Amino acid sequence: MVFPFRLPEVVYMGRGALENLSREVERFGAGRVLLVTDAGVQAAGLDGQVVEAIEKGGARVEVFAEVEPEPSTETVDKVGQLVREGGYQLLVGLGGGSPMDVAKGAAVLATNGGSIRDYAGIELIPREGLPTILIPTTAGTGSEVTQNAIFAFKDEKVKKGVVSRYLLPKVAIIDPLLTLSCPPKITAASGVDALVHAIESYTARRATPHTDIYALEAVRLISSSLRAAVFNGGDLEAREKMAMGSFFAGVSLANAGVGAVHALAYPLGGRFGVSHGVSNALLLAPVMEFNCVSSLPKFARIAEAMGEPVGGKSLREAAMLAVKAVRELVQDVGIPQSLREVGVSEEDIAQLAVDAEKQTRLLSNNPRAMTREDIEAVYRKVL
Ligand SMILES: [Fe+2]
C-alpha cells in the first residue's frame, strides 16, 4: 500500500513552546503580520504575549479579533481582502479551530483571489498561500496540523470543507500553558472533538499503519486526561496530555480523514448552530455502535486503549466496550445527551439526513456504508 503523509514544516509541542514564535516570525522576514483571533481569546488575555512575541521577531502586527464561532465564508472573504489590501506577509492564527481556519482560508485568498466559496472541495486551490503560523488555545480541533478548513455557508445552511495541501500551516506551536484558562465547557467539547478525530481516523477507510500509531496513542492520552482537564483546569499534566493527544489526533485526521460522526454533525451546526464539539460528541457513541460490527478488532483496540477490561472477552464484547466507554466519558464531562436538548425534534430528522447524505467526502471514508435510513436511525437514537 502506498500512502502520503503530510505535516506542517515545523511543530513545536510542549510546555513553553510559544517561546519559539519570535524566531519563527524573524525567519519569515515578514514586515507586516496579521494576527487572527477572537473575543474569547482576548477576554482570556492570551493575545498580548503573542503580539509581543511577533513584535520581538521584528514585525509590525495588527489584530483581527472578530472571528465568530463556526465562522462563515463572509468572514474569511473579509479577512482575505484585508490581507491583500493591507500588504501583510504572514498570518498568525490564535485560538480554537475558528480563528485558525479563518487564518488558513485568508492566507490562500491573499494569493489566489476570489471567494473561499470557490474552493470548497478537494484540492481546488491553484497556488500556495501566504505562510501561516497557527497557535491553538484549546486542545481539540487539530486545525493547526491539518490541510482542512471548515466554514458555514449561511445561505445554504450547511458547513463545507476546503481541503488543500496549501492550507497546511508552515508552523504549528502547541503550548499547553495556553490552554490552562480554557473554560470547562469548551475543554469538554473540544476534547471530545479530538477523541472523535482519533476514533474516526483510526477506523476510517483511508487509515494506514502510519496514522494508526498516532490515532491509538491519541485515544489513550485523551481518554485518560479529559476528565481531569475539565474538572481541574489548572492540572497542567492533564492539559499537557490533552494538548499532545489532540495534536496526535490531528495528525491522524489530516492523513486518514474522518467519517460519519462529522458528516452527521455538520447539519446540526448548519441548521441549529450547535457547536462543532457538541454536535460531534452527541453523535460519537451512536455512530460507533453502527460502525462497530464493520471492524471489530479495531473497536476492541479502542476499548483497550480507553482502559476497558477487554481480557477474556469475545472480540464483539470487547468492541462494544468502546461504545460504552465513550458514552460514559461524554456523560461525565457534561455534554448534552440528546438532540432535543439542542433544539432538534422528530420532524427535523428527515431534513438533517438529507443534508448529512451530501457529505460524501466524509461518508465515503466511513468504515460502514450508510443509507439515508441508516442516517435517520442514528439521529433517532440520540433524539
Ligand atoms: Fe472535528
What would you say this structure looks like, in words?
The chain has two domains: 10-179, Rossmann fold (3-Layer(aba) Sandwich); 184-381, Dehydroquinate synthase-like, alpha domain. The longest helix has 23 residues, at 209-231. The protein is globular. α9 (260-272) runs antiparallel to α10 and α10 runs antiparallel to α12 (315-332). The chain has 15 helices and nine strands. The strands form two sheets. The chain has a six-stranded parallel β-sheet with strand order 1-9-6-4-2-3, sandwiched between helices. The protein has a three-stranded mixed β-sheet with strand order 5-8-7. It has 383 residues and is α/β, with parallel strands linked by helices. Fe (ii) ion binds at residues 193, 196-197, 262, 276, 280.
List the helices and strands and how they pair.
Layout lengths: L9 E4 L7 H8 L3 E5 L2 H5 L3 H10 L3 E5 L8 H14 L3 E6 L1 H16 L8 E2 L9 E5 L11 E6 L4 E6 L7 E4 L9 H19 L6 H23 L4 H21 L3 H13 L3 H16 L4 H10 L9 H18 L16 H9 L2 H4 L8 H10 L2
Parallel strand pairs: 1-9, 2-3, 2-4, 4-6, 5-8, 6-9
Antiparallel strand pairs: 7-8
Helix pairs in contact: 1-3, 4-5, 6-7, 6-8, 6-10, 7-8, 9-10, 9-13, 10-12, 11-12, 13-15
Fe (ii) ion (FE2) binds next to helix 6 and helix 10.
